[in-house]
């Protein structure tokens, strides 16, 4: 009986630990150290004092393709012009859909007219799992103090149709605007949609 109780307590502790590990809006964003397409190392602490956007991406995903018809590029341009650091994160594992090498990543950025601050690689999935990133796209906004302020979908219509962008509520854009104004996003969490990340 005692052994069963100990096992139950251990299981509860593990469960509580896994809950604590999940990212929480209003709490410090999970730390990361990753390389970009130029081989440069980036850590979250490097961006102290700056607002940061994390965008999980997979160029083969139709939901990503939808937003790269101009919407994502415009968002990148608008926010980086306001000194926001925009990191496009590729968590696709080697051999899985969406995985690219550095040269292919740079080619995609150029050919699509994308404008992130950097494209970063998370081949082992450590960063993606720390953020509980589930889909491409999956969007996050971190404020100047390193606090996670928004996580979720790019907008309210979970489709791969470009024409739906105009009528959707732009959750992510609204959240970024709020953070830039020193306000709390509403909603601060929304359901992400897209292709599952290929860990």
From TrEMBL:
It holds the Pfam family AhpC-TSA. It comes from the Bacteria. One of its GO terms (molecular function) is oxidoreductase activity. The keyword Magnesium does not apply. InterPro entries: AhpC/TSA, PRX-like1, Thioredoxin-like_sf, Thioredoxin_domain. Residues 23-174 form the Thioredoxin domain. SUPFAM superfamilies: Thioredoxin-like. Keywords: Isomerase, Signal. Residues 1-21 form the signal peptide. PANTHER family: OS07G0260300 PROTEIN (PTHR43640), THIOREDOXIN-DEPENDENT PEROXIREDOXIN (PTHR43640:SF1). This is Thiol-disulfide isomerase-like protein. The lineage of its organism: Bacteria, Pseudomonadati, Pseudomonadota, Gammaproteobacteria, Alteromonadales.
């Amino acid at each position: 009986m005692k052994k069963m109780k100990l096992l139950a307590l251990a299981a509860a502790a593990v469960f509580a630990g896994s809950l604590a590990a999940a990212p929480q809006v209003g709490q410090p964003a999970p730390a990361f150290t990753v390389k970009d397409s130029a081989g440069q190392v980036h850590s979250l602490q490097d961006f102290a004092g700056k607002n940061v956007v994390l965008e999980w991406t997979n160029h083969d995903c139709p939901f990503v393709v939808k937003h790269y018809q101009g919407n994502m590029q415009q968002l990148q341009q608008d926010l980086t012009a306001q000194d926001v650091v925009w990191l496009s994160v590729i968590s696709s594992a080697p051999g899985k859909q969406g995985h690219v090498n550095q040269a292919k990543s740079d080619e995609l950025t150029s050919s699509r007219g994308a404008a992130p601050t950097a494209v970063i690689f998370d081949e082992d999935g450590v960063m993606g799992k720390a953020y509980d990133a589930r889909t491409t796209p999956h969007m996050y906004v971190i404020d100047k103090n390193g606090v996670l302020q928004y996580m979720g979908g790019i907008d309210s219509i979970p489709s791969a149709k470009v024409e739906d962008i105009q009528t959707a509520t732009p959750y992510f854009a609204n959240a970024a605007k709020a953070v830039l104004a020193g306000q709390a996003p509403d909603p601060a969490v929304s359901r992400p949609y897209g292709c599952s990340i290929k860990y």
